[in-house]
Automatic annotation (TrEMBL):
One matching Pfam family: DAO
One GO cellular component term: cytoplasm
Keywords, sorted A to Z: Oxidoreductase
The organism of origin for this protein: Chromobacterium rhizoryzae
Name the record gives this protein: FAD-dependent oxidoreductase
Residues in FAD dependent oxidoreductase domain copies: 30-392
Gene Ontology molecular function: any one: oxidoreductase activity
Top-rank lineage group of the source organism: Bacteria
């Protein structure tokens, strides 16, 4: 394979070929799910598990798992982005109940996979957030750990690893320590999405691929030449939600880019570690993430950009600096890679909610249920939100429907929306510039301490303003 090939490893291993026919005639169902990614498929799956008599249909513009669900870094985290903002508002048993729900995500998925015959290379090895490139990362990690303790998380959930413990897990260049959590598994993302679609179809969910929805109105999804009417519509679109005016500015569509090496040698893996296939990230504001794939590759990514107007992006130039700096960062972090070739480069679009806080809601009056804004941590969160939406739609009285990430008023109009353009574009790029400055000063090694501290404070201040 050429070193400048744009291809997604996961979709190359498990091609997104259409399995279900497009919708070509107008029809009706009880619940219409728009989007064949994790959120839509988990919602449809749980609806049919809980209420087999329900008529549920999924409309997917391409093929199931084509979007972010088939292109992500493969971290199945037991948690939500910015979850502690929710937990800090709760006391006593309610907080513990919410924590159990969050940390139980990995076990819930682990139980379903063999039952539904979904082989997605699932390994529950935890995750290491490493301080391994510059001294300020250790301070970042310890500060984060103090915040986790204030939210009620103990040693069993997040613990500090000293230099020796962290080096035993990850043979990075300059390991100083790190935060380890057991609440994470790694997967092959495309295989999970495709397997989940097959499981939902076996339960009786009607799936229509190559069926792009052009317009959403109360109780109806309009396609080219036909429409699907439903009592409840579930737009499960994440970064693509902005194409519909009713959902405009609910989520910010942000890009994330990844690369994957050729399979590494046993000697390289002996030096790099990750023996338990634990996920790993770098304690920096660049939001890095990586895993050791089942076929022995190093998969690594970092948060990308934002396009003016909130446009999605699925095609990337493999020879661009967007990938080059990620490769430089990876090689800086893991010198054992040596001259190992990068064989895959790809990216996709994810959704970010205001205040970086995912949510679920069911607006009975409008007949719409939705969840999202995962901020890049949707592989596990979508399972929890799919269960939540199913219980909300079925009006169950379980504890899931009263969790703090469920909007209590349940009205679409109450969703906090991002400001009109060009404010998000300007804000995002201002914050990215501050991140890049902090990275350049801290990782460069020659900047004075006061400059590194000032860059960190500036980045943190601008980040809080964007929320």
């Amino acid at each position: 394979m050429s070193s400048l090939t744009q291809a997604c490893l996961w979709l190359d291993q498990s091609p997104a070929e259409p399995h279900w026919p497009p919708l070509t005639q107008s029809a009706r169902c009880d619940v219409a799910v728009i989007g064949g990614g994790y959120t839509g498929l988990w919602t449809a799956y749980y609806l049919k598990r809980m209420a087999p008599e329900l008529d549920v249909a999924v409309l997917e513009a391409e093929t199931c798992g084509y979007g972010a669900s088939g292109r992500n870094g493969g971290w199945l985290i037991g948690g939500l982005a910015n979850q502690d903002a929710h937990l800090l508002r709760l006391d006593g048993e309610r907080r513990e109940q919410a924590r159990r729900r969050l940390f139980g995500i990995v076990d819930e998925v682990a139980e379903i996979l063999p039952r539904e015959r979904i082989d997605c290379d699932f390994v529950h090895g935890g995750v290491l957030y490493a301080a391994a490139r510059y001294p300020e990362q250790e301070a970042m990690g310890r500060k984060w750990l103090r915040e986790l303790r204030r939210a009620g998380h103990g040693e069993a959930d997040f613990r500090w690893l000293d230099r020796k413990e962290a080096q035993e897990q990850l043979g990075a260049r300059d390991v100083r320590g790190g935060v380890f959590s057991p609440h994470c598994a790694v997967i092959q993302p495309a295989r999970l999405a495709q397997g989940l679609a097959r499981a939902a179809a076996r339960l009786g969910v009607r799936i229509h691929e190559r069926s792009p929805v052009r317009r959403l109105a109360p109780g109806v999804a309009r396609l080219d030449g036909c429409e699907l009417r439903a009592d409840v519509i579930v737009p499960a679109l994440e970064g693509a939600a902005g194409q519909f005016s009713r959902l405009a500015r609910c989520l910010l569509p942000v890009q994330s880019l990844l690369l994957a090496t050729e399979p590494l040698s046993s000697a390289q893996w002996d030096e790099i570690g990750l023996a338990d296939r634990q996920a790993f990230g770098d304690l920096s504001r660049m939001v890095t993430y990586g895993q050791r794939s089942a076929d022995g590759r190093l998969v690594f990514g970092a948060r990308g950009g934002y396009r003016l107007g909130g446009r999605e992006r699925w095609n990337f130039d493999p020879g661009s600096d967007e990938f080059a700096w990620r490769e430089r960062l990876l090689r800086q972090l893991l010198p054992a890679l040596g001259a190992t070739e990068v064989e895959y480069r790809w990216g996709g679009t994810l959704g970010v909610a205001r205040a970086f806080t995912p949510y679920a809601l069911y607006d009975r009056r409008a007949g719409i249920a939705m969840a999202g804004g995962y901020g890049g941590e949707g592989v596990g969160a979508s399972n929890l939100m799919g269960r939540t939406l199913a219980e909300l739609i079925l009006e169950r009285d379980g504890d899931l429907t009263t969790m703090p990430w469920v909007m209590s008023e349940g009205r679409l109009e109450r969703v906090r929306r991002w400001a009109p353009e060009p404010v998000p574009w300007l804000g995002y790029h201002l914050v990215r510039s501050a991140y890049a400055l902090e990275e350049r000063l801290c990782a460069g090694g020659s900047a004075p301490a006061w400059a590194r501290r000032s860059a960190g404070k500036l980045a943190a201040a601008l980040e809080s303003l964007l929320a």
